[in-house]
Amino acid sequence: MAPFGWMVExxxxxxxxxxxTGGKPERVLRYREVMVPLGVEHEVxxxxxxxxxxxxxVSAMREATSPDLDGREVEFFSRIAxxxxxxxxxxxxxxxxxxxxxxxxxxxxLVLDRADRVVMHTKxxxxxxxxxxxxxPGWREGRNLPAAVSSVTGALRRVLxxxxxxxxxxxxxxxxxxxxxxxxxxxxxxxxxxxxxxGETTIVxxxxxxxxxxxxxxxxxxxxxxxxxxxxxxxxxxxxxxISRALYISEYTVxxxxxxxxxxxGERGRxxxxxxLYLESLL
Length: 283
Prior knowledge:
Number of domains: 3
Low-confidence stretches: 163-169
Number of strands: 8
Oligomer: single chain
Number of helices: 11
Strand order of the largest sheet: 5-4-8-7-6
């Protein structure tokens, strides 16, 4: 089935499983290993994106005894997608604006065994996990852990399965929003096994810093992808010439992008721009 990110790139607001597989869903691993055991056969996916930015997605399924989702239903998803994208974007930006940045920012550490059972954890980790989702009574046994944790552990196993360098750039990292509205960063790594102990999965959870959620600030002002790249280099202190070289564009084009950014944000000058985007609230 088409990944959500791929659908955004191809500007596909909705797509059915039967359309994406040419009527042969059994070719898809997820269909065989997840959907079939659940008795589900039909699916349509929708993405809610604006200006190439994914703000949400949906996956609607039907049992094998039900008819497939037809063209009219896929078209319905396509029609409502832009409206839902706009509202989801507004909701995310508002929650970021109202989130309390002055709360406890202590990082939490979570250690899992190969069966995803909790071997050890810090108090801060439990607090952040509770913010990411409801922790049921069996969460220490690996049940009911937030989806963000499962995403990191799954990504870590895929990286190691590709024989990637554990010390290289293959360390999984995920940005997720908690129910408090605060954005959290999850980092995953695998410990080295010992003589009497298998390697364990270590996940560090901590509040996201200003640079990590900067894309929210640029999205609030409707900056294009290229304008966001220019701003990202500005915050790093790059000169016009350095930005030109990094993005393979002329210095004149850099100035054009900056002029557009200044107009959208309502500021003049790089220092004022950085202050507005990174140091002030979105309120």
